[in-house]
Amino acid sequence: MSNQKGQPKNPKYRTGKPCRKCGSTKKIVIKRKNPSSGETYTTNRCIPCSRKQVLKNNNKKRKEGYFLKYQQNNREHLREYQQGYYTPDKHRVRNGMNKKRMRQATLNTSENRRKVKEFYANRPDGMEVDHIYPLKGKTCSGLHVWWNLQYLPPSDNRSKSNKVSEQYQPTRTLS
Ligand SMILES: [Zn+2]
Questions:
Q1: Distance of alpha carbon 87 from alpha carbon 84, whole angstroms
Q2: Measured between alpha carbons, how far is 86 from 99 in angstroms, rounded to an integer?
Q3: Considering the entire predicted model, what is its pTM?
Q4: Of 44, 90, 111, 115, which shows the fewest CB atoms inside 10 Å?
Q5: Ligand 1 centroid vs 61 CA: distance in angstroms?
Q6: What is the pLDDT of residues 143-158, one digit of tens each?
Q7: How many angstroms from the chain centroid is the CA of residue 159?
Q8: Mean of per-residue pLDDT scores for the chain
Q9: What is the tens place of the pLDDT at every residue in 74-103?
Q10: How far is ligand 1, taken at its centre, from the CA of residue 91, in Å?
Q11: How far apart are CA 149 and CA 157, in angstroms?
């Protein structure tokens, strides 16, 4: 691993100092640079011993429920992370996910395709097509099928978002 100047990020030295843990002078001790002050300092443990220490600390944290607590407190962030919000091509990832969701929710019969197309084509001016049971609801997932579509004015569509509520029950009758 090296940075732009071609310098190794964490130069490794045999400092000759004994490791604080195992006392060996033959093992490599890492010399680190303090990023703010620029000072170099040597860790007082050899590499194998510091790895063991990290594992030990992680085990201790696990026992104390540190990671579980972190997961609970950062659920939203972790979910976004998994959904690819923080990858460089996040838009591509998210578009792909929406397409996949739509494909999974589509009933692939010619009748449904025709009726959905018709429903979109007959949309009155100033109205938006909405899924009565949203494709990505909190408690349920609706289908991209003609009987799950309704017309809503844009303002209602915004406030409805991905909720299902009595107020937004379909106004048209099923035929
Ligand atoms: Zn050691």
A1: 5
A2: 19
A3: 0.35
A4: 111
A5: 22
A6: 778 788 888 887 776 6
A7: 25
A8: 74
A9: 888 888 777 766 777 766 666 776 777 777
A10: 47
A11: 12
Q: Compute the distance between CA of residue 86 and CA of residue 78 in angstroms, rounded to an integer.
A: 10
Ligand 1 geometric centre to CA of 27 (Å): 7
What six digits make up the tokens of 58? 């992680």
Q: How many residues are present in the chain?
A: 175
* Distance from Cα 175 to the centre of ligand 1, integer Å: 78
| CA 138 to centroid of ligand 1, rounded, Å | 52
| Amino acid residing at 67 | F
Residues 6+ apart with CB under 8 A from 145: 106, 107, 112, 116
**Sign of the torsion angle spanned by Cα atoms 104, 161, 120, 93:** negative
Give the angle 135-117-99 at the CA atoms, nearest 5°: 40
- Residue 148 CB neighbours (<10 A): 19
C-alpha 12 to ligand 1 mean position (Å): 15
- Which whole number is the average pLDDT over 93-118? 77
Q: Using the structure block, give the residue that is written with the tokens 């978002």.
A: 161
Given a cut of 50, is residue 30 above it in pLDDT? yes
